Amino acid sequence: MSRFRLIRLATLLGLAALVLNACSGEELQHRERFYALGTLVEVTIHGQPERTALAAADRVRRRLEDYQQRWHPAGDGELGQINRALAAGETSPAASDELLALLATGRELERLSGGLFTPAIGELIRLWGFEDDGRDAQRPDPQALEAWLSARPSLRDLREEDGRLASDHTGLRLNLGGYAKGYLIGQAVDDLRRQGIERAVVNVGGDLLTLGEPRGRPWRIGIRHPHQEGIIASLEVGADTAVFTSGDYERDFEQDGERYHHILDPRSGHPARGLSAATVVHSDPVRADAASTALMLAGPEDWPAVARRLGVQRIMLVEPDGRIHLTESMQAHLRVEQTPEAGVRSWPDP
């Protein structure tokens, strides 16, 4: 496939990032696409026969669908049951060890980000109508929004005893969307590795993790332009590397002539302003996922301190006028494909 067609494909598929490597002819390559977690998933597998690749991709699909059922904030799975108990001021049923471990990670990421990232933001997400696919999104009732801001719950308000969760804040509603994707992609790649697959990429809605790398060369990843057709930059990454992007284009709506998007700032209760996209490259997909959200909220001037605390260095930020911010370590492996009139600003690594 030509580079031009690959660039257009990123836009047509709605992916924030796309694997650009073409098949070298030296080994088999299979790409399987399906929908899960409310978005398009692409599993790219190198060096395996079609039957093996198809079976592996199907395992990824089933894993993601299982977690979607278990961890939907309003569903019948364990997270939905926990949220209903918290809203009623009751103690929840016992949570799984897996969920408790993920919440412990979330508590640490919340602390490191200064509260910009928090899984306790679920009620705010629900008020804006972004809990599912955003089709019912609208400005929240002002009184309900003010009530949430007055309480402003965090994971510090969540108590756990023998696996059961409780809180004195009935407005605390858990939503794992800010980092569960990173966790699930990591689990999917680990599963591929256990099946003996050595070279693959799992891409969920443009957030991806590599497994190994194509023979003799890195993976080439295209990063979607947040507001124009095609990709804004191409990036080379090696084995076992996560690339995650938060952008204001993923889910949005217009009301009374004003545009709103789904990345909500817990400080204001409104969508983040100042950046259109934040891309983070890191070895840990959970860290990359949470950091991309936190940096979007930190904005074009305050992000270095947040990045430093979170321990991320390979960063690209895009402002609404198209201006690009690149850290030195990101710039070393990235090529800007659409140079903005507002320019490109280089930063030292945090």
Describe the protein in words:
The protein has a single domain, classed as T-fold (Roll), CATH 3.10.520.10. It starts with a helix and ends with a strand. By secondary structure, the protein is of the alpha+beta class. The protein has a nine-stranded mixed β-sheet with strand order 2-3-6-7-10-13-14-15-17. The N terminus is likely disordered. It has nine helices and 17 strands. It comes from Alkalilimnicola ehrlichii (strain ATCC BAA-1101 / DSM 17681 / MLHE-1). Its EC number is 2.7.1.180. This is FAD:protein FMN transferase. It catalyses: L-threonyl-[protein] + FAD = FMN-L-threonyl-[protein] + AMP + H(+). GO terms for molecular function: metal ion binding; transferase activity.
Q: Could you give the topology of this structure?
A:
Blueprint: H1 3-13, E1 17-19, E2 29-36, E3 39-46, H2 50-71, H3 78-87, H4 97-112, H5 122-128, H6 142-151, E4 159-161, E5 164-166, H7 180-194, E6 199-204, E7 207-211, E8 219-224, E9 231-237, E10 242-247, E11 252-255, E12 258-261, E13 277-282, H8 285-310, E14 314-318, E15 324-327, H9 328-331, E16 334-336, E17 344-347
